[in-house]
Each structure stands twice: as structure tokens, then as C-alpha cells.
Amino acid sequence: MSIARVGTLGLFAGLLITAGIIGTNAIDTLKASASEAKESKLTKLRTEKVEILQRVVNQLEKLRIQKEVGADDLYAAQMELYHAKLDLCASDRDRIATLEHLLSEARRREEAALHSNTKPSHRALERAQVDRLDVEIALEQLLSK
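Above: the chain's sequence. Below: its structure in C-alpha cell form.
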């Protein structure tokens, strides 16, 4: 084999290796861009959900003042809003803050059920207790990471 042929083959092999590396980097970049676009779309959808649920909660709060809806309906909407906000959190710090707020609401609801002027149903009190425990468990799991 001539030196020129070996040099040409070596150059060709080097080009293929370089193209492979560049191709791999380009593919990785495209995958990262696709992943970021997907996350961006998810964030947009989650934000839209939070905005809608916030409007629902605001409407139910007004209706609750007028005694047109029950406390349970308002509470259910508030919990759905907080869970949607939790899905939107980008960091553990944000999730902790959201869970702490959710926990305070769950404790408030449990106290209200416990000390209601009207006799709360046993089921309503237990539901409030289970909701509080669910939030406390989620918060403890996050804090223990």
C-alpha cells in the first residue's frame, strides 16, 4: 500500500470519526431542545390549569359568602388548585412552600370540622383528618430527601 493511500484512508477515517462526534453532539443538542420544548409546553399547560382553577375558587368564594355553595365545594376546589400549583413547582423549595400552605389550609379545615356549631358528620371530620395527613406525609417525604 502506498503512503498516499494510507494517508488518504487515515484522513477519511478521521473525517468519519469527527463527523460521528459532531453528529452525536448535534443529536444530543436536538434531544435537549425537544426536551426543553416539551417541558415548556407542560409548564404552559400547568399554568393555564392554575389560572382556571384560581378563577373557579374566586367564584366559589363569592358564592360561599352568599351561601349559594357549601364549604365542602369551596374546599375541594381550593385543594385542586393547591395540587395544580404543586405540579407547577420547579424546585423542592417551591414544593415545600406550597405544601406548607396546603397543610395550613388542611389544618384549618380540620379544626373547623371539629369545632363547628353544627354537628359535623363523622365522615366529614375523618375526610379532613385524612387530607391533613396526606399533606403532612408528602411534606415529610420531601423534607427527608
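The helical segments are 3-65, 71-88, 92-114, 122-143.
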